[in-house]
Amino acid sequence: MFKKSTRILTSALISLMMVSSLCLTSCGKSDKKEQAATDDDVITLRICNCEEYIDEGGWGEDEVIELDNGEVIFGENSLIDDFETWYYETYGKKVEVEYSTFGTNEDLYNQLTLGDTYDLICPSDYMIMKLMYEGKLQPYSEEFYDPTIETNYYAQGVSDYISNIFESYEVNGETWSKYASCYMWGTTGIVYNPEYITEEQASSWKLFLNSDMSKRLTVKDSVRDTIFIAMAIANEETLMDEDFRNSPDYNDQVFKVMNNTSQEMVDKCEDILRIVKGNAYSFETDSGKADMVIGRVWANYQYSGDAVYSLDQAEEDGIYLNYSIPEEASNLWFDGWCMPKNGIDGDAEKQQCAEAFINFLSRPDNVVRNMYYIGYTSGISGGDSDTIEQYVNWLYAAEDDAEDTVEYDLSYFFGEGKGIITAESEQLNRQLFGQYPDEETMDRLSVMWFYNEEESERVNNMWINIRCYDPADAFWPIVLILGLTVIIAIVVIVKKRKN
Q1: CA–CA dist 98, 82 (Å, integer)
Q2: Which parts of 8-159 fold into alpha helices (H)?
Q3: Which helix (H) or strand (E) holds 477?
Q4: Which segments within 457-498 are labelled E, that is strand?
Q5: In this structure, are residues 301 and 188 in contact, taking their beta carbons and an 8 Å threshold?
Q6: Is the distance from CB of 232 to CB of 301 less than 8 angstroms?
Q7: Is 164 exposed, middle or buried (0-12, 13-18, 19+ CB in 10 A)?
Q8: Per-residue pLDDT reduced to its tens digit, 423-448
Q9: Cα separation of 248 and 237, whole Å?
Q10: In terms of C-beta density within 10 A (0-12 exposed, 13-18 middle, 19 or more buried), how is residue 56 classed?
Q11: SS3 label, residue 451
């Protein structure tokens, strides 16, 4: 910083100082303009994800993951912070992520309807389909699926199993993959305590009709999830028929059965869910995990990722829980990244940044960080990298001296000749099975389709009847009203006769 001298006041010096002052002022203005341009060059990426659904960093020193391939993985910072750093180092531009969360898919939809604007969101499959149907999503760029681009970790590493599903399902004649990329996937099933419930009992959804389990069961406070229990029970005879199971289009037939929302089927589901409601300890959204761990309930209808969490937490307290996917059929679900059309709004740079975020999360080491932190299963198998396969081995491979082991084949997900894990046999119904069901089990799973307006009204009315109204509850009030009516009528008649 320059200071004016008060010792020499010659006219020449004054003139020189005036010239210098003008130059400095001019340079200062130039620097400020340049700084303003730099500030304006920051890309703001608005992301809305489900709660507690990304690695937030802060791992303990004992949480370092050292894999056999030499990869060392540790979550010091959040993946959001690491992405901002990586993006600048990779593309030379600054990005600032505005990260927010939602509780349910319906909450997210309401936020979008009320005018909240995001560049990237992570809804579940049925909500992705709904948003596709309504024309609210921006398609991915052609470059995103080019595996030859070095930083396209999603295209390089997405499991062929997942990719084939996203290519096969269509809405309005367009595939899921045009508008969505898989983040996490899983199943729904039953977490149960084997001290009270046998493996055979937990192999059927009829467990929830068993009066011996009264107030020892919890189900989801979600019509879309819980109706699957009723659908499976209502169609048990068909679903368990040997000819049906051996049909060449078995999986397609399971899809049709488990997505039947005709009035007749919805009525059947309502009757079944009344019995389930009578047996259930509660309809819950998140408390079922804790209820299982502390022993308040013996069985809990659960998402696979939360099931793994429950098993892990209970094991810390010396309680060993199991996870079952019932024999009739169950739900195969996906959560995926999508770009709302009104968020991207034709901005190619912002779309590139959003797609870069997905690719960053799809890099094998970051996939492991996410899976470790949140407990769910990524749609990325790793491609040429064996890091994710090594991580599954790190979690579940049996010790060398283990005696009761099985060869667990996950080649359907990791690729031919990959994903063969020697695990302890107990993992056939514990965490490994929860994260990666075997291929035979996968065959009897079905995606849950989105409801159109007519179907939504039909199903939601049924759910209102289940959650808010029970004819049995109205029996005595009706009797009381009828009784009072009769008494009043008698009194009126007697008075008239006296008059």
Answers
A1: 14
A2: 11-40, 79-91, 105-113, 125-133, 153-157
A3: helix 471-498
A4: none
A5: yes
A6: no
A7: exposed
A8: 999 999 999 999 999 999 999 999 99
A9: 19
A10: middle
A11: coil
H-run or E-run covering 232: helix 223-234
Place of tokens 């199971």: 245
62 residue type, one letter: D
| Pairing status of strand 137-138 against strand 339-340 | antiparallel
pTM assigned to the model: 0.85
| CA neighbor of 236 nearest in space, from 268, 279, 263 | 268
CA distance 124 to 225: 12
Query: Any idea of the CA torsion for 203, 208, 212, 215, to the nearest 10 degrees?
Result: 130
Element (H, E) at 494: helix 471-498
For the chain, which residues score pLDDT lower than 70?
A: 1-40, 469-480, 483, 489, 491-492, 494, 497-499
> Is the backbone of residue 108 left (phi > 0), alpha (psi -120 to 50) or beta?
alpha
Query: Would you state the structure tokens that stand for residue 82, as one six-digit string?
Result: 């690491």
All structural domains of the chain = 40-179+335-384 (3.40.190.10), 185-327+444-468 (3.40.190.10)
Between CA 467 and CA 240 the distance in angstroms is 30
Q: 407 burial class (0-12, 13-18, 19+ CB within 10 angstroms)?
A: exposed
